[in-house]
Amino acid sequence: MEEILKAVESVNSHINDLVWLKIGIFLLIGTGLFMTVITRFFQVAHISHWVKETIGSLFNKKSYSSSNGSVSQFQALCTTLAATIGVGNIAGVADAVVIGGPGAVFWMWVAAFFGMMTGYSENLLSVYFRRKNHDSEWSGGAMYYLKYGLGSIKCKSKLISSLFKKFGEILAILFALFCILASLGIGNMGQVDKIVANIEQALDIPALSSHVIYSSGGQSITLYSLSIGLVIMIAAGLIIIGGLKRIASFAEKIVPVIVILFISGSLVIILSKFDKIGDAFKAIFITAFNPSAIFGGACGYTISMVITSGIKRGVFSNEAGLGSSTIINSSSNVKEPVKQGMWNIFQIFIDTIIMCTITALTILTSGVYDLKAGAVAESGATGSTLVAAAFNRVLSVGNFDFGGIFVAVAILLFAFTTLIGWSHYGAKAFEFLFGTKYTVIYKIIFVATIALGAIMTSSIAWDISDTFNGLMMIPNLIGVILLSKTVIKVTKNYIDRKIKYKDIKPLLSYHADIQNELEAELYLEKQ
């Protein structure tokens, strides 16, 4: 068993370095920068409009209404947040700070700023190229705009047009395959691993934790970890088997609650250390470009680690560029592709600019990270356990570590909702490859894999997640770049109609029948 795990770790390490360090980082930031420039900094230039159409529309009943085959815009937002606001916002941020120092947070912001337009573009495309499946549900996502979008590119040469079509089909299949694998990694095993680690640390039950089922190479599988995994597996299975409607209904109820609770708890920590907030922001900006002199000649490598860890964890948190959020957002009842793109700008803003910053400030102001020494001050604390230590410094009562319990519950809820959201992503990718009636096979595999996440080592679970993230990202971003003219065309059409008030025909779908149907619905709404 130990030799197999080492072999998996070695192979994954080589693939991870190739995907992220040599390709992914440059493709990710490059695409975000490119889409930002060609849309003329839409996320800034039209900030008042997208805020009005997202946050403002939360007071509109239409945002909460759904129909057969679709979910409401609020449900789509909550399900997307359920899949993104999770371990990445707690353990991911902490890992970024441990690996890259406070400066990694700056690069999470950079990834989020440009990621807003990557997320906007991919979600616009997902709605524009979506279709209805045999159950009359919307089916969309990167695999659909890769297949139908790239397949629609017309060139003077029929051969080149044919090559684009074939290229799009290949990328769509690769994306769907990587999405299924990623759903079992980032969306399943990685989440369960963190749930188990935090519950075991915060609430030890000696009768279970002392009972070792398997031990090798320093790793022990206890009855406690296996029991937690089985409980999660049963609870998740009851929701996942119910399909999209049950997942969306669960997400819209639980996500707002856990977001408010975690933000409130974090603000208690931060405000109790109010005098440290300035030092924390100073450390973030200074170490983003100028790491401590203790790194000496390794300074260049250190800067690289700061940037890489910040961007990777930023993507792990908000998923901009992965193409994953496009799957649920294309199921929204929204008619305007641009509006769904704006919802994704809002989602990334909440997920990274707000949530990740709050987690980072909790770590940097609490004292568990020594800003002067540029190192973790809490012995043995990494990832989410570092956040728990930060909470314990303020919220502990006597020998009772209330902070650790709070973070363990937050991780449980965040990671569980992430797991639920990703189950839908994988199911839709499976549907694209094998058909609607076979998705039950995927759901069974996904639920069964939950128990595996409870007994895997943390490093392997997270490293595999990183690799699958990158593998999903590559075909998706290639598609976004090649379809950038479509993004510009649909965005310009929307701006002309909604902001400049021109009386022109809306661009709602690539498919003529869907375009006519949605156009008729918009006309009736105006009457």
Describe the protein's architecture and organization.
This protein has 21 helices and 6 strands. By secondary structure, it is mainly alpha-helical. It has one domain: Amino acid/polyamine transporter I. It has a two-stranded antiparallel sheet. A two-stranded antiparallel sheet has the order 3-4. Strand 3 and strand 4 (219-222) form a beta hairpin. Helix 6 (103-128) packs across helix 7 (142-151), helix 7 runs parallel beside helix 19 (458-482) and helix 8 runs antiparallel to helix 17 (402-434). The model is unreliable at 292-305 (pLDDT under 50).
> How many helices in DSSP terms?
21
The average pLDDT value, as a whole number, equals 77
The description of the largest β-sheet is:
2 strands, antiparallel
Number of domains: 1
CATH topology: Amino acid/polyamine transporter I
Distance between the termini: 67 Å
